[in-house]
Amino acid sequence: MSVTDELLANNALYAKSFAGPLPLPPAKQLAVLACMDARLNVYALLGLREGEAHVIRNAGGVVTQDEIRSLAISQRLLGTTEIILIHHTDCGMLTFTDDGFKDEVQQDTGIRPPWAAEAFTDLAADVRQSIARIKADPFIVHKDAVRGFVFDVADGRLNEVV
Amino acid sequence: MSVTDELLANNALYAKSFAGPLPLPPAKQLAVLACMDARLNVYALLGLREGEAHVIRNAGGVVTQDEIRSLAISQRLLGTTEIILIHHTDCGMLTFTDDGFKDEVQQDTGIRPPWAAEAFTDLAADVRQSIARIKADPFIVHKDAVRGFVFDVADGRLNEVV
């Protein structure tokens, strides 16, 4: 049995106690942008319930064009006004460089990725850069409530980047 | 008190019963790519626990360059080999068109977004297109275990797209 099949069995159990449909717009008018890291259970670590916040995730929790797309849709069409950014300690993005990653991919495939890998060396600095990318973007409407945090994978705490 | 402050209070409670650090690579060697929709609690609906799977999310659960970046990092640096794609019923991406969204943004800001909004009209067709984008990409290594689903927000079930 594949992992996917195992998780489909879990889903059948989840559906048995499912409460039913909720409204489409996020009830807390919030969008969270976090790293894809497996240890970040975003709903649990923020105490979010189904229907409360958009959750956007990628390698690093960085802001690229696709996160701008998601945030613009979230704010313009679905009414969110606050943004929480979450990076975390022991992040994989701290373990390589863009050039090194691209070199390896090029050696393996013969093609150099045309996109940035978005590696970083300083968690807090990259949270600040992510906030700066949002503040500088012309398509995001609400920029007054954008706060960034580093989640500590050792103790489960969010520490704000100021 | 802002929503963010309220959720930080939740996080303090979460940290009190936090079990401690887990390994960086996802234990189930799985990456999930799902829509950002607030009603999709990905860990709960798949029965995932902290540390088991990368979770990538965006508006629509679509595959653009940034999801390729995340999946390539997930597979090449952190050992994942299976991919689950999740779209869902009552999705916001079904409620507008790329041209219409861009027209509105241009009217509001004076600038037409240079990126696709990635709206779609058929959930299953867009799941299939997402799988096709992954299969066609030169940078993703493992493509044999890529399966796509539509989550039903009325009953909590994942229905496979075949």
From TrEMBL, chains A, B:
<dbReference type="Pfam" id="PF00484">
    <property type="entry name" value="Pro_CA"/>
</dbReference>
<protein>
    <recommendedName>
        <fullName>carbonic anhydrase</fullName>
        <ecNumber>4.2.1.1</ecNumber>
    </recommendedName>
</protein>
<dbReference type="InterPro" id="IPR001765">
    <property type="entry name" value="Carbonic_anhydrase"/>
</dbReference>
<keyword id="KW-0479">Metal-binding</keyword>
<comment type="similarity">
    <text>Belongs to the beta-class carbonic anhydrase family.</text>
</comment>
<dbReference type="InterPro" id="IPR036874">
    <property type="entry name" value="Carbonic_anhydrase_sf"/>
</dbReference>
<keyword id="KW-0862">Zinc</keyword>
<comment type="function">
    <text>Catalyzes the reversible hydration of carbon dioxide to form bicarbonate.</text>
</comment>
